[in-house]
Amino acid sequence: MATATNLSGEALTQIMTWLSPSFPVGAYSYSHGLENAVDQGKVKCRETAREWIGFLLSDGAGRSDAILFHEAYAAVSSADPKRLMECLEWAQSLRGTSELALESRAQGGAFIRALCAAWPFASRREWLDRLGPSPAYCVAVAAAMAFAGVGEHAALTAYLHATAANLVSAAVRLTPLGQSDGLRILANLAETIPDLAKDAISRSLDDVGSSAVMADLCSMKHETQYTRLFRS
Predict the structure, then answer these.
(1) Which residues contact 49 (CB under 8 A, 6 or more apart)?
(2) Phi and psi (nearest 5°) for 115?
(3) In sequence order, which ranges of the chain are alpha helices (DSSP H)?
(4) Less crowded by CB within 10 Å, the N or C end of the chain?
(5) Predicted TM-score of the model (pTM)
(6) Domains in the chain and their CATH numbers?
(7) Is the dihedral of CA 48, 52, 55, 59 positive or negative?
(8) Which residues pair with 18 in a beta bridge?
(9) pLDDT per residue over 131-188, tens digit each?
């Protein structure tokens, strides 16, 4: 199996392709409550955007999803279907609002459909089938990375980076930030992402949880927000 420090060309290509903004999961249409945070004036500049997104990664849904990613990856690697189903159940139950649940399920389902259209994984396809039509996105990506033999730390680091990049992109579209400001935010966040991935790999389902209550509240308010660019 590939490792974080010695990825094969194929593994690197898979990470880049599956977590690319062009991979058809519709990530661009979700803001994880950020749109309402901007509407309320909680996020209005580069620094507040960096703080908001950074906290989501370290103490919010990013942290929970990273631990679930680790558990799902381990379940597939050890051929443990019961553990994988437990990850799915946790992932579904942890969404604080209907929009956040939609964000996860819709992307997970789209990821699996796109993956199977081009990478059938023939003899191991039954593992993908176990996930169902709309699995949590973090679980779906973790399972695929494990199927493909991509090193866990590299895969999880890339997943968290893609999450950060999508939120930064949303912030740039929602606030008076330019592309350079967005890149500065992402560069700052990227410094800590490998450590967040390493920490998540040392955790278990007992450690899953979020303290980003404000993000959930913003998501609730977003459901009835009058004007919206994003689905969450």
Answers:
(1) 43, 168, 171, 175, 177, 185
(2) -65, -50
(3) 9-18, 34-39, 46-59, 61-77, 81-93, 98-118, 125-130, 137-148, 152-174, 179-190, 193-201, 213-222
(4) N
(5) 0.94
(6) 28-220 (1.10.4190.10)
(7) positive
(8) none
(9) 888 999 999 999 999 988 899 999 999 999 999 999 999 999 999 999 999 999 999 9
